[in-house]
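Dear Dr. K.,

Following up on our conversation at the group meeting, I've run the structure prediction for homoserine dehydrogenase from Haloplanus ruber. I'm pasting the input sequence below exactly as I used it, so you can double-check it against your construct before we proceed with anything downstream. Let me know if the numbering doesn't match what you have in your notebook.
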Amino acid sequence: MSLRLAVIGAGAVGRSVVDLAPEYGHTVTALADSRSAAVDPDGLDAATVFDRKDAEGTVGAADPEDALAAEYDVLVEVTPTTLGDAEPGFSHVKAALERDRHAVLANKGPVAERYADLMALEAESAGTVQFEAAVGGAIPILSTIADFGPGQITAARGVLNGTANFVLSRMAAEGLGYEHVLAEAQDLGVAEADPAFDVEGTDAALKFVILANVLGDEDQIYSLADADVEGIRSIPASALDLAAEDGRTIRLIGEATADGVRVGPRLVPQHDALAVTGTRNIVQFETVNAGQLHLSGRGAGGPETATAILSDVGRLE
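The predicted structure tokens came back this morning:
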């Protein structure tokens, strides 16, 4: 079944959704960036829209609000994650649900910071909220939880930030210091110019907050403020050298358990499943009847994240 998509956010993920949607049989009828929008009920031409974006800095001549008012079946929210009130992403999703449209998010803010509000809006709407892409890029983490049933998974832990993992694994492999490897990561485009969101553990914490809320119940809703978070800035190369002498390494490990949400550097055996290298992500589930389950893959990137978004769209058909 072909669905009409309105994409809010024209960064790498938004561009990839627009590019890949036809492969999945869907039509993009609206696209908005922070300053403009392009709207066409018959479907946008990706090349035309992005040629204009590259040349003029805007995707179209319409206002961003026009994308929210366009004709669509699914709102795809891929604006940057914000903390606290999770705006403007939350209001974008609210507008869609109030029109009884579906919403698919890669934006972690509304799901991590205002989960109860989001679920209340969904309960009053004919629309559905999906957010697989908010947790682990291309990795089917939330769909696996849905297939197992949240009550069958007692804990989730793992590595869900590629930037921090790249830095730590490079430090371990080459014996280099944090600042040197971070600069290398920035040169390669693995780390942002301002890497704080990643290296301080915030990004990973938001993802594990989402997992805690999905796995938990409505009596205990988590936000970032409830998480115990420590980043990797203060880890010296010598700590990784000492760990290696004992057959271990250090990774930024997140946990969502009955005790709450924690993210911080942890010692793990060098050949443990959680000792992934480079930008690779992994999540480990503790299940009631099936032991440990591991899911690993690319946790970020435009096409990778877009595949999770479009898989969510497919579940709405």
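Two things stood out to me. The mean pLDDT is 95. Residues 37 and 62 are 5 Å apart (CA to CA).

Best regards,
J.T.
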